[in-house]
């Protein structure tokens, strides 16, 4: 009888061990990965969000790569990544393919020239109208800087555009009444490429997302480049209400208040294929729209307005 009781007791011990040892292993945090690719426009802010979020959640690894909005959309719809960074409006065709999106911040595309441009002082006073930009980038009716600044000479306007499918080019093209494919010029890959091309060519012109035009620390334009002011009301001069390019913060305020035209100002998005089913992704997006918003301005972007944040958060539910 005693031997039978001992056998039962031993069996119970073994059963308890089988139950509790695996559950004890489950107590440990399991590593989870979130993969993101896409727009250069959103890349610096996404990296900042990832760094801050991983401090709070060390079991989460977030991998981010920039390659243009078009690549991000292709990657996310094909299942290569969990999310895409996107910097233009999502098309009906993309939505039909499964693109689900939320807005996470706002910025703009700025026309850029070299700070060594011999006409820069005059250009800052007169600005360039929307129609004149179209004649530089689309119709090529303006091919010399002297056509804008009536001075002797025949200095050629060297136009640079994006070679990669991207939101910046699409939004700049929309502002000019066309699209990316309609923009003429030498194709350069990525925001950094455009910035470098303009910086090294005193007669060059291109366009950059805000974060690639201004230094995040000094809040001033990067050395070597300058923003070319837009003559919004086409009156031949930059009025006080159009003169907001002196610092990153003044440009951000102009975008937020709607003083800078839209396009090329626009919302920035994170996209998944269908509403996120991965809990780690949903939790990260929820954090971005709540605590994560405090890093937006610091990183050089424009915060969404409270009513828009509420609308985007509702999509997660």
Number of domains: 2
Overall mean confidence score, pLDDT: 91
Query: Span between N and C termini?
Result: 61 Å
Large-scale geometry: elongated
Proper CATH architecture of the largest domain: 3-Layer(aba) Sandwich
Query: CATH homologous superfamily name of the largest domain?
Result: Periplasmic binding protein-like II
Q: What kind of sheet is the major sheet?
A: 9 strands, mixed
Contiguous runs where pLDDT drops below 50 for at least 5 residues: 1-28
Classify the helix fraction into a percent range.
25-40%
Strand content: 15-25%
Structure characterization notes:
With 317 residues, the chain is α/β, with parallel strands linked by helices. It folds into 2 domains: 32-107 and 267-315, D-Maltodextrin-Binding Protein, domain 2; 108-256, Periplasmic binding protein-like II (D-Maltodextrin-Binding Protein, domain 2). It is 37% helix and 19% strand. The protein has 11 helices and 9 strands. Strands 1, 2, 3, 4, 5, 6, 7, 8 and 9 form a 9-stranded mixed sheet that branches. Strand 5 (158-162), helix 7 and strand 6 (186-188) form a beta-alpha-beta unit. It is elongated, with a radius of gyration of 26 Å. The model is unreliable at 1-28 (pLDDT under 50).
């Amino acid at each position: 009888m005693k031997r039978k009781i001992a056998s039962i007791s031993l069996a119970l011990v073994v059963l308890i061990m089988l139950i509790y040892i695996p559950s004890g292993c489950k107590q440990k945090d399991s590593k989870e990965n979130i993969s993101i690719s896409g727009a250069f426009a959103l890349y610096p802010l996404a990296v900042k969000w990832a760094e801050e979020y991983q401090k709070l959640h060390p079991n989460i690894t977030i991998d981010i790569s920039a390659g243009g909005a078009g690549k991000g959309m292709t990657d996310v719809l094909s299942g290569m990544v969990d999310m895409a960074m996107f910097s233009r409006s999502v098309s009906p065709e993309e939505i039909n393919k499964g693109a689900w999106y939320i807005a996470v911040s706002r910025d703009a595309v700025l026309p850029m020239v070299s700070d060594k441009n011999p006409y820069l002082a005059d250009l800052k006073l007169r600005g360039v109208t929307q129609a004149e930009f179209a004649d530089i980038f689309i119709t090529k009716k303006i091919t010399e800087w002297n056509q804008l600044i009536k001075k002797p000479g025949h200095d050629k306007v060297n136009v640079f555009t994006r070679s990669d499918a991207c939101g910046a080019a699409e939004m700049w093209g929309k502002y000019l009444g066309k699209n990316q494919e309609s923009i003429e010029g030498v194709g350069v890959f990525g925001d950094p490429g455009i910035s470098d091309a303009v910086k090294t060519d005193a007669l060059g012109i291109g366009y950059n997302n805000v974060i690639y035009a201004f230094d995040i620390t000094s809040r001033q334009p990067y050395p070597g480049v300058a923003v070319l002011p837009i003559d919004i009301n086409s009156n031949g001069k930059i009025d006080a209400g159009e003169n907001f390019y002196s610092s990153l913060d003044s440009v951000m305020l102009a975008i937020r208040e709607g003083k800078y035209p839209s396009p090329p100002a626009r919302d920035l998005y994170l996209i998944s294929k269908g509403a996120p089913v991965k809990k780690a992704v949903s939790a990260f997006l929820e954090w971005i729209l709540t605590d994560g918003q405090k890093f937006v301005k610091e990183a050089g972007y424009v915060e969404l307005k409270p009513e828009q944040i509420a609308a985007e958060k509702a999509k997660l539910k």
